[in-house]
């Protein structure tokens, strides 16, 4: 239900939305991974809401921070706590961007199309411009978007207490994998 609500928000937030141009998902996946000699940290969120407009190339993702799942409950508690993501205060992360080379993607022909996304990533009360390479995979009526990029914790004012600084990397690898379906408005 939370993801459906987020999808509703981003759908009506997109400029000049036309239903036949939009692909949507409410169960996309975003994961992150950090590694140090002492510990690897990985979390997965399978409740990502996203809309991709095939005409304009606009793309938007909304992620609830508390929906990231860790292999250890203690990691998840620390991640959501005030010392890290402070998810009660900053409950979501959001990316609003544009695929800058959308004209290279042929939605009527199956294939793997390299793309570049530029936009603004907002989380933990901070917004930064990002640019990432990715891929759009067209297979029938399904569109898959995949990307991997690196963020620095300091860029989002996420501090790591000194006592655990050797267990948490300063840079985190973020992976995106969303399977979109063409938005079909319900008819009466």
Automatic annotation (TrEMBL):
Gene3D superfamilies: Lipid/polyisoprenoid-binding, YceI-like
Record-annotated Lipid/polyisoprenoid-binding YceI-like domain positions: 53-178
Top-rank taxon, per record: Bacteria
InterPro entries: Lipid/polyisoprenoid-bd_YceI, TTHA0802/YceI-like_sf
Protein name, as recorded: YceI family protein
Lineage of producing organism: Bacteria, Pseudomonadati, Bacteroidota, Chitinophagia, Chitinophagales
